[in-house]
């Protein structure tokens, strides 16, 4: 079992550059990844997304990749010679139009013109190697993230099993009380009908008592208790045996547990069992909250 929340980090250094990758995961119904990648490495986004999704199936992940370029990129100045020719031509043309215009083109002025002299980055030949290192760093970061998610998942599992064990105790208590409750309910209904219909003939009274017994049987909660125990057993098996992702399956079972408990509460008119039903609902609500954190 894994938690959907976690944090991972990886630092990698080489002669020409250093890589720092961080991953933060939070709850989300589906898988969502938001990688923050430096502009010059945007071509890696698809590989990074694929790497993450192959290891994490649910949750929202924010991935931050910081690169200290070092000597990965060199900067050069590039001159637009066609534009320089235009500057020279215009200067000569201006001088020829009037004797009052004097002077020469100043190189210090020209070199400061952004459109004439541009600064560009030139990739080193080992940039491809750097890209491979980035992907490796991301993989290591995700492994670190999964390790934390697994640790938190173990704690989640312990808490969930504790809640389930408490539910089992309550169910056992309800099972112990339910038969006697059914017997008392049937006897009470028979006595009440017998008292109010004492003056009716035996045939009619037998039919009414039969219908009352049928009603009492409808109030029987044995089926709901059996299904509730089955859901708990299935929940436990999934946690113990199945690999991730299991969060959606567990969430569905919690809904089924809640449905059975609600049915029990609607059938029973006994204060003691109603109080036990309230306790069951409380544990189910706690389980529901925890399951929202399971991948």
TrEMBL record:
Top EC class, one word: hydrolase
GO molecular function terms attached to this record: hydrolase activity
Endoribonuclease YicC-like C-terminal domain segment(s): 174-295
EC numbers: 3.1.-.-
Cofactor(s) needed for function: a divalent metal cation
Keyword line: Endonuclease, Hydrolase, Nuclease
Endoribonuclease YicC-like N-terminal domain span: 1-157
Top-level taxonomic group: Bacteria
Listed PANTHER family: UPF0701 PROTEIN YICC
Homology family: Belongs to the YicC/YloC family.
The protein, known as: YicC/YloC family endoribonuclease
Lineage: Bacteria, Bacillati, Bacillota, Bacilli, Bacillales
């Amino acid at each position: 079992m894994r938690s959907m929340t976690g944090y991972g980090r990886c630092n990698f250094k080489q002669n020409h550059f250093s890589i720092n990758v961080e991953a933060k995961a939070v709850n989300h119904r589906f898988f969502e990844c938001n990688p923050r990648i430096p502009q010059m490495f945007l071509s890696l986004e698809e590989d990074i997304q694929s790497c993450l999704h192959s290891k994490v199936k649910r949750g929202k992940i924010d991935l931050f990749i910081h690169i200290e370029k070092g000597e990965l990129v060199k900067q050069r100045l590039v001159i637009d010679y066609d534009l320089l020719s235009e500057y020279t031509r215009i200067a000569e043309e201006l001088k020829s139009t009037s004797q009052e215009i004097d002077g020469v083109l100043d190189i210090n002025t020209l070199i400061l013109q952004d459109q004439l002299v541009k600064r560009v980055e030139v990739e080193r030949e080992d940039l491809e190697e750097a890209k491979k290192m980035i992907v490796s760093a991301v993989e290591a970061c995700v492994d670190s993230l999964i390790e934390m998610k697994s640790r938190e998942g173990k704690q989640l599992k312990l808490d969930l099993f504790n809640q389930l064990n408490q539910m089992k105790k309550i169910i056992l208590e309800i099972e112990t009380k339910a038969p006697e409750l059914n017997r008392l309910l049937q006897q009470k209904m028979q006595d009440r009908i017998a008292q109010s219909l004492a003056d009716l003939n035996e045939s009619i009274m037998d039919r009414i008592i039969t219908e009352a017994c049928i009603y009492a049987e409808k109030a029987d909660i044995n089926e709901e208790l059996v299904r509730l125990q089955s859901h708990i057993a299935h929940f436990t098996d999934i946690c113990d045996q199945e690999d991730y992702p299991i969060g959606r399956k567990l969430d569905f079972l919690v809904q089924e547990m809640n449905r059975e408990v609600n049915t029990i509460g609607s059938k029973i008119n006994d204060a003691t069992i109603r109080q036990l039903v309230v306790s069951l609902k409380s544990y189910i609500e706690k389980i529901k909250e925890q399951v929202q954190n399971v991948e």
